């Protein structure tokens, strides 16, 4: 007997949360190991190269989300011939991207050392580019079609488990390499070699659990919305990658290291929160494909509330505890100033908006509405890039400039998404998500006011004090937020409790 959509969503979300916590811990551990051992410039250089390598996904044109959207229908019917045809089309597509990626890496080895403001010599930079590109080759040639399949089949937790093991192994490798004083290239070389084991696992797992046929002719219809998916993927790349690129060219890789310290915290929280909607994506796609609109509306209400509550609580705590943490965390990082409060708070605001928007983006992608929602993605790109570049040139504060641009782009896309989906897919008035935003803002402001009145954060001078203040802050803000959500969303909270208890 198959697992229900609800249980699948809960399992996927649980493993997604564990993965994001693991990745979050890895980011903090690697930064704390690498910056004191190798310097801010090297740390920023690695982050910048990884971001430039990620730009190859623009050529992929967001095909992953399009492929998953196309797989929902044949999987819901049990049509393995149709699934095989789509997987074979994906394999051909991704292998072509892998070959293009090889050419891109060659170009990057020539161009990147010329434009990056870094103290490392050309040979060092080129060797890092080559090492960091290894695992991406393996993903395009083997992993990605299989990940699309298990994700669309509501089993993304399998991918999460693999990534958890891989992340823990990376952390262990980093500790060993730094302990023995190895070159940072040896450290990332070991990580990339560990990453080569992931494609092998995916190939074996899919072979065992899915009766796919290699001889089925590829069905290229699953690429029908690829151009529209490209627009959405471009917006995602602008959101996640342009900040590092602008800082690399305009301010230098050392400032990218500062960005990464704040990003490790703020983006880590975002991944935790959005794992809620990510865990529900396949279930939402199944509901849409089977035409169960009433259940879809109820499911969106539930996940929006959970995700909004999680974002409000976690980011309120983050806002209060961020600067004391950065002061303690970067005490040994003296080659550049890491104390940038205005940048940190604006970055938090940007990611809060992204979290509130993500449930709507998940619904539109699960419904294969890439063409219909591409204008919102283009709007986000235009606002983000235009404002970021203007402010970098006028403010002369590159970090704050890119954060403001990101926040503005997020806000524009969020408003566009709720208007479109309220009118065309979900049976809910536009005022509903705006009410959620207002209640959440009230909860955050209330939590901040109470915490500031009871706790003196200037007293934090040790890790133990930070932990004790953090626990108190988390409890206070949780109580304030819970009270407000209970007052304004009592019926939805009760339905969630019934669902969790197995009675709804």
Describe the model:
It is a single chain. The chain is mainly α and 504 residues long. The chain has one domain (5-212, 225-500). Helices cover 83% and strands 0% of the residues. The chain contains 19 helices and no strands. Helix 1 (5-38) runs antiparallel to helix 12, helix 11 packs antiparallel against helix 12 (253-289) and helix 17 runs antiparallel to helix 18 (463-488). The radius of gyration is 23 Å and the shape is globular. The protein starts with a helix and ends with a helix. The model has no long low-confidence stretch (mean pLDDT 82).
- SSE run: HHHHHHHHHHHHHHHHHHH
Distance between the termini: 20 Å
Kindly estimate the percentage of residues that lie in beta strands according to DSSP. under 5%
Output the radius of gyration.
Answer: 23 Å
Mean pLDDT: 82
**Assembly state here?**
single chain
- Count of structural domains: 1
Q: Looking at the structure, what is the overall shape?
A: globular
Question: Helix- and strand-based class?
Answer: mainly alpha
Number of DSSP strands?
0
Q: What is the number of helical segments per DSSP (H or I, 4+ residues)?
A: 19
């Amino acid at each position: 007997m198959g697992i229900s959509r609800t249980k699948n969503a809960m399992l996927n979300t649980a493993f997604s949360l564990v993965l994001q916590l693991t990745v979050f811990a890895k980011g903090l551990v690697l930064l704390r190991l690498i910056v004191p051992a190798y310097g801010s410039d090297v740390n920023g250089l690695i982050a910048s190269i990884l971001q430039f390598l990620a730009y190859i996904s623009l050529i992929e044109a967001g095909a992953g989300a399009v492929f998953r959207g196309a797989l929902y229908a044949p999987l819901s019917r049990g049509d393995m011939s149709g699934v095989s045809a789509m997987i074979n089309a994906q394999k051909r597509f991704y292998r072509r991207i892998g070959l293009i990626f090889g050419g891109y890496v060659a170009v990057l080895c020539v161009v990147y050392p010329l434009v990056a403001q870094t103290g490392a010599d050309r040979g060092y930079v080129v060797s890092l580019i080559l090492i960091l590109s290894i695992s991406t080759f393996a993903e395009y040639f083997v992993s990605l079609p299989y990940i699309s399949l298990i994700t669309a089949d509501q089993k993304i937790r399998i991918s999460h488990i693999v990534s958890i093991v891989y992340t823990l192994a990376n952390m262990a490798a980093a500790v060993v390499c730094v302990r023995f004083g190895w070159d940072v290239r040896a450290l990332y070389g070991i990580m990339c070699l560990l990453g080569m084991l992931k494609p092998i696992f995916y190939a074996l797992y899919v072979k065992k659990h899915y009766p796919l046929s290699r001889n089925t002719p590829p069905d290229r219809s699953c690429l029908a919305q690829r151009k529209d998916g490209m627009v959405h993927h471009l917006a995602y790349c602008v959101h996640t990658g342009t900040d590092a690129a602008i800082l690399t060219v305009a301010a230098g890789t050392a400032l990218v290291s500062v960005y990464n310290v704040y990003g490790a915290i703020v983006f880590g929280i975002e991944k935790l929160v959005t794992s809620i909607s990510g865990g529900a994506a396949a279930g939402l796609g199944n509901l849409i494909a089977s035409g169960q609109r009433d259940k879809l509306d109820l499911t969106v209400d539930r996940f929006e509330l959970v995700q909004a509550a999680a974002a409000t609580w976690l980011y309120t705590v983050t806002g209060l505890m961020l600067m004391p943490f950065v002061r303690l965390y970067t005490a040994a990082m003296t080659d550049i100033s890491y104390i940038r409060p205005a940048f940190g708070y604006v970055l938090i605001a940007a990611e809060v908006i992204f979290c509130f928007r993500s449930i709507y983006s998940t619904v539109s992608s699960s419904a294969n509405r890439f063409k219909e929602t591409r204008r919102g993605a283009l709007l986000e790109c235009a606002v983000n890039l235009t404002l970021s570049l203007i402010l970098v040139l006028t403010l002369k504060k590159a970090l704050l400039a890119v954060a403001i641009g990101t926040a503005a782009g997020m806000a524009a896309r969020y408003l566009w998404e709720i208007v479109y989906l309220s009118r065309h897919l979900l049976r809910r008035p536009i005022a509903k998500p705006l009410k959620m935003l207002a209640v959440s803002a009230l909860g955050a402001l209330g939590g901040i006011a109470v915490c500031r009145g009871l706790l003196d954060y200037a007293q934090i001078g040790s890790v133990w004090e930070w932990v004790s203040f953090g626990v108190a802050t988390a409890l206070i803000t949780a109580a304030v937020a819970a009270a407000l959500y209970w007052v304004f969303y009592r019926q939805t909270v009760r339905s969630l409790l019934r669902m969790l208890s197995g009675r709804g």
